[in-house]
Amino acid sequence: MKKIVIALLFVLPLALVGQSYKKLHNKAILVDTHNDIPSATIEKNVKFDSDLKGKTHSDLQRMKEGGIDVQIFSIFCGPEQATPYAFANREIDSVYEWTRRNPDKMMIVKNPEQLQQAIKEKKLAAMMGVEGGHMIEDKIENLDKLYERGVRYMTLTWNNSTSWATSAKDETEKKDSLPHKGLTGFGKQVVKRMNELGMIVDISHVGEQTFWDAINTTTKPIIASHSCVWNLCPHRRNLKDEQIKAIGKNGGVIHLNFYAGFIDSTYEKKLNEFKARYKKEIDELIANKTQPDYAAMMVAEKHKDEMGSLRPPLSLLMDHLDYIVRLIGVDHVGMGSDFDGIEAPPRELNGVEDYPLITKALLERGYSKKDIKKMLGGNFLRVFKAVQSH
Hints:
Blueprint: H1 2-27, E1 30-35, H2 37-44, H3 60-65, E2 68-76, H4 84-101, E3 106-108, H5 112-120, E4 124-131, H6 140-148, E5 151-155, H7 168-173, H8 185-197, E6 200-202, H9 208-217, E7 223-224, H10 241-250, E8 253-256, H11 260-263, H12 267-277, H13 279-287, H14 292-302, H15 304-308, H16 314-328, E9 333-335, H17 356-364, H18 369-388
Helix pairs in contact: 1-17, 6-8, 9-10, 13-14
């Protein structure tokens, strides 16, 4: 009898989690700060508001199934684009077109009041973030125009540096050959103008010197829209403990990236071996004008069984979340999936429809409902209000 009672004590909490996680997930406001579907629809020639299961990580219907209330669509192009500002506007046009075609399902959101209105009307709150400061083409007026169109954060760099900010990739690989490190005087002007506008400063992708210059320049909370923990996976894109603590002190939020390469320290070696095996296929796509990152992703999708064996478990992503919480608390963690900008999310997360499994994992790790609601979206909403306030 005693053994049965002990067994029940272990089984009952799991059973309760099984019953309650979906209910909690639907009650929470879920914000994903980084999804690359605008780029994916261009590269794959598909429509976001059609059934894209098996083709992409995301589509409009599956976002609803996954319980996403607020999606920040990444406005991205690589440095190979000759006219990055024009390309950014092309992707912004796409997001506007999706909302025009689906007025009952989604709406463009530019401020916290509109965001709450969208949630009340059970529509997807569509926001936009520019991934890479090169898209303003060194012009403050372009930053202003992007803000007018609805862009509410800008990642200061992508993997490429700008003339005014150095990236993590360049600070790591080029080191002494860089003409400068961190933010120039113009770069600090960009950060200050973002503060004035009410545009969130995003430090994902930036080099360490750029990070410290940005956090010492901003007067508003910042975010990492899609980054993880360097101490658990020492990748240049991840944040070191002192950076994590600085974001906590600033009142900002680190939104976890679901990419295998940023959560699993063994993944990059396996990926490089995979890419070497299929180099010819990747090169053929690039020769046909596919963006290089998407060429690798599309080949990974073609060989999905082989790629699937390389993907880490969801538990590793949760380890990154636990680490940040232990270091700076539950008020500074959020979700920034990078869906449709990555070839390998955790095994359990095949697309946006699987988001409820994160809520389940959080409950299983003992987080309270109140804290889970903060991490799923409440923390971002706090930062958005703070940055928008004048």
